[in-house]
Design goal:
Elements (H helix, E strand, L loop, with lengths): L3 H14 L5 H10 L6 H11 L1 E6 L3 E6 L5 H4 L9 E7 L2 E6 L4 H11 L4 E6 L3 E6 L5 H11 L4 E2 L2
Parallel strand pairs: 3-7
Antiparallel strand pairs: 1-2, 3-4, 4-6, 5-6
């Protein structure tokens, strides 16, 4: 198993089935299957197959396939909805505050929703910027976010 397609397939399978917390762990698992990879190769592979890192209650952080982020994966991470704190609006921008380290994982969940009201997200460590479509209303976006994250509060 040496070609790129086979490596990507194996990475998807391992990340989808196991709790992988570091690139070093994944490099070891790949080596067990006869595949040598470097961290820089894995970083490129992660971007290509859309793998994200999410908080996990016992492992700290784990890698997950972004398309699998939903109720099944969210249920396996450390109460991710509780990491969403509040939302504020300014014209066609919304800012969601999160607990430290959760913004990226939460933005993946928001992006996966593919809302017609949200053009895109930008995540930092503890904040997510939502760029809203011109016709989007704050009320509509707030309702969508509270449906995803019931504990989210609105700050004026």
């Amino acid at each position: 198993m040496g070609n790129k397609a086979e490596r990507l397939s194996l990475i998807r399978r391992i990340v989808g089935e196991e709790l992988i917390g570091s690139q070093e762990d994944l490099i070891k698992r790949l080596a067990e299957h006869g595949i040598q990879a470097t961290q820089s190769t894995l970083s490129r592979d992660f971007k290509e197959i859309n793998i994200s890192k999410m908080p996990h209650h016992s492992k700290g952080y784990i890698y997950v396939l972004s398309e699998k982020i939903g109720t099944e994966v969210v249920a396996n991470v450390a109460n991710i909805g509780e990491a969403v704190l509040h939302i504020k609006f300014s014209h066609n921008i919304a800012v969601i505050a999160t607990k430290s380290g959760y913004a990226s994982a939460i933005s993946v969940i928001i992006d996966a929703r593919k809302s017609k009201d949200i053009i895109g997200t930008i995540a930092g460590d503890n904040n997510i910027i939502l760029i809203l479509h011109e016709e989007a209303t704050h009320e509509s976006v707030l309702a969508q976010m509270q449906q995803l994250f019931p504990t989210l509060t609105y700050l004026k």
